[in-house]
Amino acid sequence: MEGVKTCQELNHDGTICEESRTLKILEELQTLYAERLKRIDDEAGGDGVQLKITTMESWVRDLTIQNAILVHTVELLEHEASERVLLLQKRLQESSKSALEYMTKVQDYDSQMQEATGEKIRSQSQEIWSEFLATYPAPGFDPRHFLIFFEALNLDQGQLSLMRSYLNEKVAAPI
Known about the structure:
The protein has 175 residues and is an all-alpha fold.
């Protein structure tokens, strides 16, 4: 067939791919009809018009069947491609869901670690503060510096209020 490219790739078993076999059959069919028309011209001359028309009608029927087969094949391929796309989309969604779950767990773990670290810092700071208050420093010391330190640690207002009360008991001037 003119204008139809044939597959020249070899399969893993060394045979030419299936498409070229099918195209070869179509080429042979076209050659058969062309030879039949030429033979009619050679044998019947101008009197073979009806025979040529019958041959061409047969050819057109065969081409119509071939086209129907090609259309059906294309539809099957489109259906297969659509199914594969849907399968890939499903797998991608599952992968995305797994990745999201993993990221959520990582964020939760990170939040827990930050919270635990903050609690540990606050706890250690309170221990240091308690030890400090137990040995209360020399006159002239301003405990407000420690309150600023504890405010920077983001202690809640209840804890800061307790520390202010405690310092007010220890220091003559209220803080």
